[in-house]
Amino acid sequence: MELVNELWMNGNTPSLIACTTLIEGFRSTKEIDEAYELMEKMLQEGMLPDSVTFNCLLSDMCDAGKAKEANKMRLLGLNKGMDPDTVTYNILISGFKREGKKKESEALVEEMLHLEFIPDIATYNRGIALIVILQDFCHKQLLLLREFQDSQRKTLQTLSVVQYYNGKVSTCYFEERE
After folding, report:
1. Contact residues for 162 (Cβ-Cβ < 8 A; gap 6+)
2. Strand residue runs (E) in 25-131
3. Half-sphere exposure of residue 68, counting CA atoms within 13 Å on the CB side?
4. 78-84, long-range: CB within 8 Å, 24+ apart, which pairs?
């Protein structure tokens, strides 16, 4: 890691391939902190890793009981232009759950829904009470619709409840009636 830092300090940026190879080497020898440090440096320098390397490191961090740091890494990646995927969220949800951090895992599920990710069977199998979260999401949508109805003096004709069916989530909706 010292050599990589020295390269960066001298203005010589190592290639993405070199950094990815080093991260994989650190991961294979269980040097997760070094891999984290290198990934953090890469992201700060605007060097975006592939999603497989990124998600594997997040998984290793969660396995080491560092879900909070893994989530920080996700947020840094997000700020630098990386797009998290369902795998990213599933890893973090699982990591927070193993650490007994239910609120953090539920917040990630809610974020997935807000970003219109569809939680898949892997999300559900990670032990999240997905149905409760979806019911809460729908309840909030219903309250917003009622506020809208009161402000517009229109009635709701149709309200669809959030359903989890064959990996698809339908959202609450309404149709206006004069």
Report:
1. 134, 135, 137, 138, 141, 169, 170, 171, 172
2. none
3. 5
4. 80/43, 80/44, 80/46, 80/48, 81/48, 82/43, 82/48, 82/51, 82/54
> pLDDT tens digits for 70-89?
999 999 999 999 988 888 98
- Largest Cα span, the chain: 70
Among 167, 166, 172, 178, CA closest to 136: 172
CA pair distance 69, 73, nearest whole angstrom: 6
The whole model's pTM is what? 0.66
Among 57, 133, 123, 54, smallest CA distance to 94 is for: 123
Give the tens place of pLDDT for each residue, 4-42: 667 667 777 788 888 888 899 999 999 999 999 999 999
Structure tokens at 154: 């229109």
Q: Which amino acid, one-letter code, is at 139?
A: H
Give the strand pairing for 155-156 and 168-170.
Answer: unpaired
Q: How far is Cα of residue 152 from the mean position of the Cα atoms in its chain?
A: 36
